[in-house]
Amino acid sequence: MSNVKVITTPLTDEVIETLRAGDRVLITGWVYTARDAAHKRMLEDYEKTGNLPFDIKGQVIYYVGPTPAKPGQVIGSAGPTTAYRMDKYTPKLLELGLKGTIGKGWRGPEVKEALKKYKAVYFAAYGGTAALLSKHITKVEMVAYEDLGPEAIRKLYFQDFPVIVANDIYGGDVFEEGQKKYRKLVI
Amino acid sequence: MREIHFDEIVEKVKNLVMDAEYKLPQDFIQAIKVSVNKEESDIGREILQEILKNAEVAEKEQVAYCQDTGYPVFFVEVGQDVRVVGGSLKDAINEGVRRATKEGYLRASLAYDPLFDRKNTGDNTPALIYFDIVEGDKIKIKFAAKGGGSENQSKQAMLKPADGLEGVKKFVLQTIANAGPNACPPFTVGVGIGGTFDYSAVLAKKALFRHIGERHPDPRIAALEEELLNLANQLGVGPLGFGGTTTAVDVKIEIAPCHIASLPVAVNIQCHAARHKEIEI
Question: What is the ipTM metric for this complex?
Fold first, then answer.
């Protein structure tokens, strides 16, 4: 594992080029939340109007549906959801300028190819450690689709939010590389 | 006939759900502590420590361990000498879930219809409730919060009797390997073998209530549990799928008689948010 890299959003191609699968990264800045229902609606809206609910250029989407905030909290528990469910929508968003996604688990081949083509990265956050991760979120603003409840699009301000580069623009895959080292049994 | 009031059940179910969401079972925490010392990968050890820290914070601050507070599933054993007054048992359980969701700041995670508008039900009801009638004058309520990430990686197969033990082992291990990083390992793996198509899956889910390390009473099944746990940890998946030697902390199998033509097997993958808790009223 390499040293921790500190990056801020929005992301540029220059920053993306320095990131390799396995790198530990702390992200500071605004990111957008979206998961299944928001992705579906965003792309339906785009088909109809040619617009997305926010300017996606250089931005990062965090796949999360947080719990409601308790009094005194900025946000409730807020860990990543499984990323592959968004694979159907991700290449189009990357084409439109999205530079990073944060989730957990494997991405499909279509997303890995699109990451190379459009210069973007997929970061993995530690799934299930939602009470800890929420402490790195210091501001929340509603952006769109409020009726979707936990699936609405929100803007979150990250303060040193810890992630690992899972898929980079060079074809690296942290899960495949990591598991290979410990795989004694192939089924 | 012993009488239990609707309101008492509502209150107890509410507390049961909130407690389960905030505090992981002690046997699971203990298993993770043991794994920290055995895990071979650096990142794997770090993740296991983060899991312990997350459990500590969630319990201390009384917040949800995971943002996916899950599909509420109940196994309820109703004593035949007990009567619920003031409303139905089913309504009481759903009301308990509704209040836990609101008062406990849980995420509403159910879509009312699976195919069309997928509108959120807003309060995590209706819960899935399996009822069983037993002897006695008590009600035992077992609760599990089933997160979508690990439930999505669970599988069922109707194997042939000729596939036998080897076929079952292969299916279980393939399911674990495929679940990989998507389902937040280390897993507890529930396996149901026998019964019918649907009942094998119920058995797999039920198996997850057994304590970690507690083996099946049939020594042949107990040996299979240990063998599968050992093999699962050779798959290389590791904590959160980043590679390592802790892929599962236990494999628990339940069996049932089955049709002479069938060998049903179901694998219910449980992520590290292993929220299972039971109460007796």
Answer: 0.95
